Amino acid sequence: MECRIFEIDELPLLNGEVLRDARIGYAMYGTPNADGTNVVLCPSFFGRDHTGYDWLIGAGLPLDTRRYCVVTAGLFGNGVSSSPGNHPSGSRFPLITPQDNVAAQHRLLTEELGVRELALVTGWSMGAAHAYQWAVSHPGMVRRIAPICGAPVSSPHSLVLLSGLAAALSADAGERGRKAAGRVFAGWGTSRSFWARRAHRELGFATREEYLTGFWEQVFLSGPGAADLLTMVRTWENTDVGATPGAGGSVEAALASVTARAVVLPGALDVCFAVEDEKRVADLLPYASLEVIPGVWGHLAGSGGSAADREFIGGALRRLLDSPVDGG
Question: Where along the chain is the active site annotated (predicted)?
């Protein structure tokens, strides 16, 4: 799908700075209906662009473009939207929070596309964090959310992962740093059972080393540069719906303010975002259910890498979109 660009002259940031000459890379699949009630938003995830949800979008797929208009929006730092590597500020590129990404996406939807209501916001990993943030920042606009393998606030445990990624990316700005970061993520992206079962063979990688080299290193080499990825690491580190203006620093208060119907979709063996943590989140949301993605794929369960995971997630999204939203 063709990448479109939305430009913002000045974007005020949560920390008081201003990002000037900002741009968002996005794509639109399908057509808005007459009353504008069929729009679905998918914020991108770590290191990927607007094409990361292609497995979900299309005629006959869970986000069926015969019924819905799907907008995929790239986060800042992904190498297409404003990032250190493509922005005049370069190494002085500011800290971006999920609140800032949502503010920019809100302007895209309302100013450029004329959208006033979102039937659903869904995303994987960092995309899930932004689904939560959308529901907190714009409760009157968001009817449903489906966060997949992600959280509304970064846990101390996830900060350990991020410190490892940051160390690898900071040690070398070239390919070595990104390859090292890929190997850091490999231990977090799947589960112990995945490795014990040698499930990488289902992806065509005969050995562990082939999988590390051919999948994880390539994931990091095929995306943005190290400086851009570091921007996304900082965004992930600063994920906190409680920091939203009006929430008073309370994650609990922020989640309690959500009016959207939610289906929270953690991976059964996700090391990055544990099921017990996401159950607590679901309990704090006024209109939420928890559906645990089974299997051994861990965090990667949300990426659609296996047919079983695609079927499970697709079914959950279809049921959610068919559910009523009035009064929760």
Answer: 125 (nucleophile), 270, 299
Helix/strand number for the chain, H first, E second: 11, 8
Inform me whether the pLDDT recorded for 132 exceeds 70. yes
Q: How far apart are CA 313 and CA 319, in angstroms?
A: 10
Pairing status of strand 18-29 against strand 39-43? unpaired
Check which CATH number belongs to the domain holding 8 and give it: 3.40.50.1820
The DSSP 8-state label assigned to residue 73 in this structure reads E
Written as one letter, the residue type at 42 is C
The Cα–Cα gap between 102 and 91 comes to 23
Do the strands 69-73 and 18-29 form a parallel or antiparallel pair, or are they unpaired? Answer: antiparallel
Q: Is the pTM of this model over 0.70?
A: yes
Burial 268-287 (b: 16+ CB within 10 A, else e): ebbbbbbbebbeebbebbeb
Same domain, 255 and 193: no
Model confidence at 251, pLDDT cuts 50, 70, 90, reads very high
Structural domain ending residue among the three candidates 208, 230, 252:
230
Domain that holds residue 208: 158-230
Residues 87-120 have pLDDT tens digits of 999 999 999 999 999 999 999 999 999 999 999 9
**Do residue 124 and residue 181 come from a single domain?**
no
Same domain, 181 and 57: no
Q: Please give the average per-residue pLDDT across 115-130, as a whole number.
A: 98
Q: Do 177 and 282 fall within a single domain?
A: no
What per-residue confidence (pLDDT) applies to 326? 67
The CA angle 54-56-132, to the nearest 5 degrees, is: 105
The answer to whether the beta carbons of residues 98 and 235 sit under 8 Å apart is yes
Positions marked catalytic: 125, 270, 299
**Rg of the chain's alpha carbons, rounded to an integer?**
18
Mean pLDDT of the chain: 96
User: Residues 309, 293: contact at Cβ < 8 Å?
Assistant: yes
